[in-house]
Amino acid sequence: IMLHSTLALSLLLIAVTSNLAMAIKKEKRAPQTLSRGWGDEITWVQTYEEGLYQAKKSNKPLMVIHHLEDCQYCQALKKAFAENEEIQEMAQNNFVMLNLMHETTDKNLSPDGQYVPRIMFVDPSLTVRADITGRYSNRLYTYEPQDISFLIENMKKALRLIQTEL
Hints:
This protein is mostly helical and about 170 residues long. It has five helices and three strands, in the order ααβααββα. InterPro entries: AGR/TXD (IPR051099), Thioredoxin-like_sf (IPR036249).
C-alpha cells in the first residue's frame, strides 16, 4: 500500500509540474500583447519614438500601422496581414514594426488625414516616405485585404529605397 500511494503521489507531482511548466511557457509568450493580432512572431516596438530609434540603429525602415479595435476595415486588414507568410517574414526580419491605436504627434504620419487603417513607412534616415502609397487616391495610405500583394510590393519598395538612397 505504501508503494502504491508513493507512486500515485509522484504521478500527481509530475502532472502538476508539467502543467506548471506549460503555464510558465505560456506566460513567457504572453508579453507579446504588442502584436494586437497583427503577428505574434513579429517583434513590435511600443512607441513611435522607440521605432524611430530602432530604425536608425538597425538601418531598417519603420512600418507604422494605425488601426482601431472597433474598426471592421482594420480587423479585415489585420486578418489578411497576420495570415500572409511573406508579410510576416518580411516584417519580422527586415522592418522595425509598430502598430498604434492612437495618433502620434508627428503630423508627417497623417499627410492626408487621420483615418484607419493607415500604413506608412519611415526611412532609417527618419524621413516619412509619403511617396509609398496604397491604391486609393482619397486615402493614400489605406489598404484593404485584397491589397495585400500591393502592400508586399510597397514593403519591398521601402527596402529598395534605403539601399539606393543612403
